[in-house]
Design brief:
Order of helices and strands: HHHHHHHHHHHH
Largest sheet: none
Structural class: mainly alpha
Helix content: 55-70%
Radius of gyration: 21 Å
Distance between the termini: 47 Å
Low-confidence stretches: none
Number of helices: 12
Length: about 325
């Protein structure tokens, strides 16, 4: 098919190569679980030993499953000359969140003294998604056929008349406080409340591998500004960038929470840093909700974007 009609989008070949590396990530994850043996043992020991951690284990599984599926869908969309803008932005958010925690966490954590040239293999996972993100963003978004009067009617509704948006506003406010709280814990806040929370709820935040600390700092410096923009976008109409930003954030949070929840409970995490049995239910409910709500908000923004569309009145004001 490619020989008869070569794809015009150069990202086709990027996704094809990344799909192959996703299969390698899945092999690494399966070998770490003992399901297969002898494929990448030497590489894990000499090349990237930090992948032997619980966090490394979980990101391998995410790359070998979720990212692999995204690559297949985007390759198929390019081959069939269909739009993959929504999936592409979601993937950009997911993969950039992964490397934003993995690379700094490896350098500042306990594996910082064991770095080898193999860590440079992660450079394409930083550069190519950034370049791809700009290219994907330039793709035309799906047009909405609603009449301008219908859009204006929707935008005239106050927040109290939009119960779904009100729920998201409440979520963003609570999540902002939650991100600040866990960010302070990552920065070794000495207060009794922080100390008790780490000891009784999420001891994984003190793991010397440093990945959970980096994750909380990324949440604090990345999610909180996003929540501010999202709150503004839900209160005032006409922010056309909201669906795109919601997709980037949803992809990042899906990857991050999958890795964080899995590593907090994983057998490769030392026992003293795993979530206590008595706190497991509360831990799962809080963190699963923290990961699912951005997915629901992205779905809301993409499916019903009328409130975020610009009308002629907005264009005249500008």
């Amino acid at each position: 098919m490619v020989r008869k009609k070569p794809p015009k989008d150069p990202l086709f070949y990027v996704y094809a190569v990344f799909a192959f590396t996703s299969v390698l990530s899945l092999i690494i994850g399966l070998e770490q679980d003992g399901i297969i043996d002898g494929f990448v043992t030497f590489y894990l020991k000499q090349g990237e030993p930090y992948l032997n951690t619980a966090h490394g284990h979980m990101i391998c599984y995410w790359d070998g499953s979720a990212h692999y599926l995204m690559y297949l869908l985007m390759v198929a969309a390019i081959a069939w000359e269909e739009s993959y803008r929504t999936m592409g932005l979601y993937w950009v958010g997911s993969i950039l969140m992964s490397v934003a925690v993995l690379l700094p966490g490896t350098v500042v954590g306990k594996y910082g003294t064991k770095l080898s040239a193999a860590i440079l293999l992660n450079v394409p996972y930083v550069c190519l998604p950034v370049c791809a993100g700009f290219k994907i963003y330039k793709h035309p978004s799906v047009s909405n056929n609603l009449a301008p009067k219908a859009i204006q009617e929707i935008q005239r509704k106050g927040l109290l008349r939009r119960p779904l948006d009100l729920m998201f506003v409440i979520y963003f406010i609570f999540s902002t406080g939650f991100c600040i709280f866990r960010g302070l814990i990552a920065l070794d806040c000495p207060t009794e409340l922080c100390r008790q929370y780490v000891q009784l709820q999420e001891p994984y935040l003190k793991d010397p591998a440093a990945y959970p600390k980096l994750q909380m700092l990324v949440y604090m410096f990345y999610c909180i500004p996003y929540y501010t923009f999202a709150l503004s976008g839900l209160l005032f109409p006409g922010y056309t960038w909201m669906p795109d930003l919601a997709l980037l954030h949803a992809g990042g949070l899906a990857q991050a929470q999958f890795a964080y929840i899995g590593a907090s409970l994983h057998a490769r995490t030392p026992y003293i840093y795993r979530v206590p049995e008595e706190a497991r239910n509360a831990f799962l409910v809080i963190n699963i909700l923290f990961g699912i709500m951005p997915q629901l908000f992205a779905y809301r923004c993409v499916s019903w974007p009328e409130f975020f569309m610009k009308t002629k009145e907005h264009e005249k004001d500008e």
